[in-house]
Amino acid sequence: MNKKMIALLTTFTFLLLTSAPMVRAAITNTAVPGGDSPESAPQQFAITMATLWQTIIIVGGLAFLLYFLWGGLNWIMAGGDKGKLDESRAKITQGLVGLAVLAASYVIVKFIESALGVDLLNIIWPTAG
């Protein structure tokens, strides 16, 4: 991977991880009962974990697309060179394996949700009343 590609991916990942959904987890709302109390710590943790998982899925999907396209372009530009074709095939295969891991994590989360009967990515906390 050349330096420009690494710099681009690093910058993109930094911008994606520091976007608004990640900031949301650090804000406490004093207008909501218990918004600044220690009891809200599990809520903040759950929100942070759900947001982190969703961010990883998005970044992983974009990384798959970039890696898959990179392998495809290398395949096209290989010009019949056996070594370059093997390298391109390996990139495409690695991209597909990464996509399979992302899909498997989604399936596991949905299976756990159905087994527990809880929406893990959108937990609704009971309000004190």
Draw up the topology in text.
Blueprint: H1 3-17, H2 20-24, H3 41-76, H4 82-116
Protein described:
The longest helix is centred in the middle third of the chain and has 36 residues. The protein is mostly helical. Helix 3 packs antiparallel against helix 4.
Number of distinct beta strands: 0
* Largest sheet geometry: none
Number of DSSP helices? 4
Shape: elongated
| Rg calculated over all Cα atoms | 20 Å
Give the % helix.
over 70%
Average pLDDT, to the nearest integer?
79
Gap from first CA to last CA: 56 Å
Structural class: mainly alpha
Low-confidence stretches: none
Strand content: under 5%
H and E order: HHHH
Give the gist of this structure.
The protein has 129 residues and is mainly α. The chain is built from four helices and no strands.
Tag the structure with descriptive keywords.
129 residues, mainly alpha, 4 helices, 71% helix, elongated
